[in-house]
What does this fold into?
Amino acid sequence: MKQHVVFGATSAVAQACGRIWAERGDCLLLVARDAARLEEVAADLRVRAGTADRVTTFVLDATDLGRLPELMAACRGLARIDSVLIAHGVLPSQAACEADACATR
It folds into this structure.
């Protein structure tokens, strides 16, 4: 059984990967900003996993850096982390990111 952290867990790519992993019996920590949609995705994956305890959630807006310690604590709740899927992102100005590290962050 592997353990995965999935950022952007409500995206189509993340859901497709989550289905594969849940049906395989892996553990998932799902991270997304939309709490209601995250719970819908988690409920589906819990059914596919056959048990509720293999799928946990963490609501996070990735721009809220102050919550990163809470996220790290949630990650430490896993026995280990075998993979991290980052299926979220933003589309800032490329020129701005090249000119300013703060914009990139």
